[in-house]
Amino acid sequence: MAKEEIDAVTGTATTGHEWDGIKELNTPLPRWWLYTFYACIVWAVVYWIAYPAWPLVASYTSGVLGYSSRANVAADMAALQALRGEKAILLGKADLADIEKDPALLAFARAQGRAAFGDNCAPCHGTGATGSKGFPNLNDDDWLWGGSLDALYQTIQYGIRSGHAQARENQMPAFGKDGTLKKDEIVQVASYVRSLSGLQVPKGVDLEAGKKLFADNCAVCHGDDAKGNQELGAPNLTDRIWLYGSDQDSVVETITNARSGVMPAWTGRLDPVTIKALAVYVHTLGGGR
Predict the structure, then answer these.
(1) Amino acid 253: pLDDT
(2) 215: pLDDT confidence band, cut at 50, 70 and 90?
(3) For a pLDDT cut of 90, what percent of the chain falls above it?
(4) Exposed/middle/buried for 32, CB within 10 Å: 0-12, 13-18, 19+?
(5) Which of 98, 99, 160, 260 counts the most CB atoms within 10 A of its CB?
């Protein structure tokens, strides 16, 4: 047998492994660490047996305790519906237009809509629905697809470019990426569009050329007066409200590569009463029409 080598500095035996002159010491792990490690293994085995843990072909092991987070959520939702009781039933049966005429029903719808908005919509639109870059402010009166109660209900139900068969759909051409316009032409169009909101444009840019390019390429959706078209989801370019930024680079980027924001369809994710409450809540934020 090979003689055990002892490190001269620490007095600890080595494992015999050496790399680049560095020898590995044979230092056992502390017992408390080993016991903790073994306890974790035992705990894992107990957890596998007690709770849902292992996936199967079409299901999973349910565990001897029969615990299910999905069942707990379902029970909580059922309890919530029972708590809302008669008001929720009335809200579900009421026409959208009639909800805002009934102060008590309106207050209930707004309360439920506010809670649903915080859970589902606030991550994009903000807790106060003020939006951010790429996500519309829902408090103003600027709407891509219309701010009426029915229009909001439609948008919330089916989303925008969500893949749902009834989703709002449009597609702005990528004028630069597709080669429709040259770089200098895109700068001219961007400068002209920004001038409609009274923004300062780069010196030397031919705004008349930009106006003609706009008429030839953009007016078909945004209108000759650039006031937009809600039937197409084309924004008003004269109201100083910019979804992706009003600086020259941002507008050039929009014209060059287009924008294709997506809003999910909430039908199937939220129950019909909650979607109705959301529509009412958003409509009463201040910008609804």
Answers:
(1) 97
(2) very high
(3) 71
(4) exposed
(5) 99
Q: Which own/partner pairs from 62-67 qualify as long-range (CB within 8 Å, at least 24 positions apart)? A: none
Residue 283 annotated as lining a ligand binding site? no
- Judged against a pLDDT cut of 70, whether residue 229 lies above it is answered with yes
Q: Crossing angle of helices 69-93/272-283, nearest 10°?
A: 60
Measured distance CA(112)–CA(89) in Å, rounded? 13
Is 121 assigned a ligand-binding role in the annotation?
yes
Query: What domains, with CATH codes, occur in the chain?
Result: 1-67 (no CATH), 69-168+263-283 (1.10.760.10), 183-257 (1.10.760.10)
Whether pTM > 0.85 for this model: the answer is no
pLDDT confidence bin for 2, thresholds 50/70/90: low
Q: How far apart are CA 67 and CA 32, in angstroms?
A: 32
- Is residue 40 a known part of a binding site? no
Residue appearing with tokens 């080669």? 179
Tell whether residue 77 is among the known ligand binding residues: no
Closest CA to 120 of 161, 70, 169, 159: 159
161-207 pLDDT, tens digit per residue, is 999 999 999 999 999 999 999 999 999 999 999 999 999 999 999 99
Q: In a 3-state reduction of DSSP, which class is residue 96?
A: helix
Q: Which residues pair with 22 in a beta bridge?
A: 19
Tell me the average pLDDT across 40-60.
92
Q: What is the dihedral of CA 12, 13, 18, 24, to 10 degrees?
A: -50
H helices present in 237-284, as ranges: 248-257, 272-283
Closest CA relative to residue 153, chosen from 7, 276, 33:
276
Q: Confirm whether residue 164 is marked as ligand binding.
A: no
CA–CA distance, 240 with 198 (Å, rounded to integer):
8
User: Cα(50)–Cα(61) distance, rounded to whole angstroms?
Assistant: 10
Specify the residue for token string 């934020």: 285
Q: Is 172 annotated as a binding residue?
A: yes
